[in-house]
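User: I'm putting together a small comparison set for a docking exercise, and I want a reference complex before I start. The sequence is below, and the ligand is GEK. Could you produce the 3D structure with the ligand included, as structure tokens?
Assistant: Of course. I'll restate your input first, then give the structure tokens for the complex.
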Amino acid sequence: MTISMQSAKDSLYASPLGEINAFAFDETVVKVFPDMIQRSVPGYNTIISAIGLLAARFAKEDSVCYDLGCSLGAATLAMHQQITAKNCRIFAVDCSAAMVEQCRQNLAVASGGGAEIEILCADVRDIAISNASVVVLNFTLQFIPLADRQAFLTTIYQGLLPGGILILSEKLAFDDVRQQALQIDMHHLFKKAQGYSELEISQKRSALENVLIPETFAAHQQRLKAAGFASAEVWFQYFNFASMIALK
Ligand code: GEK
């Protein structure tokens, strides 16, 4: 079964805004979110499909798969469609009430057969994680304050079963100044090629300042190892957007 995640076209930053407010996942964003994320995150659809395949491989019978920062449920749906393990539950969590409401509507159609889905409106830092075979953080950690990231990943590690997987997708930063400038330029060219104007790109960039905090792959790898993960590697990268696999 495929459920369309189509949406209205994102034009939230198309007109000049006198004051640019900090980016928030509110009703206006929810309405255009599928279009926004697909035209802003290079490789988004590829990553979503791969999350389904990875979940099918790692989901264990009688275990839980977590989609933390689930937005409209794209990764949850991919997992639901691919997991064949018996008595497996998918737990989808997001702290935006507007996202969760639309996510519930999107995923209501996916009920019946396969892993049972539960959707919760909560801060991912506050939920208990246990009996997990798969945890997905698909472009969510970048919105968690830096000071909380280590404790959060340690909680995830502790809640994973031996051999469990964390799929962590993030916008990356680079230590090398030329690489950093190039990757940001290429991302902006990607967005232009997707139809965004210079004004949209620059206003969105201002809105995300201090809201989305990217880190280097080395910083992520070090933190994942400190949390206890046996290994952490990039399985996909498209300019400054990457998806990593961490194994317990
Ligand atoms: C996807 N994973 O389509 N607790 C719960 N949710 C949070 C928190 C938090 N502390 N901080 C941010 N969020 C999705 C895409 S979007 C990425 C994820 C992006 C939620 C926030 O409300 C939003 O829905 C999501 O994390 C980030 O596969 O828009 O770049």
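The pocket of GEK is lined by residues 25, 37, 69-71, 74-75, 93-96, 99, 123-125, 138-140, 143-144 (CB under 6 Å). The chain has eight helices and seven strands.
User: Thanks, that's exactly what I needed.
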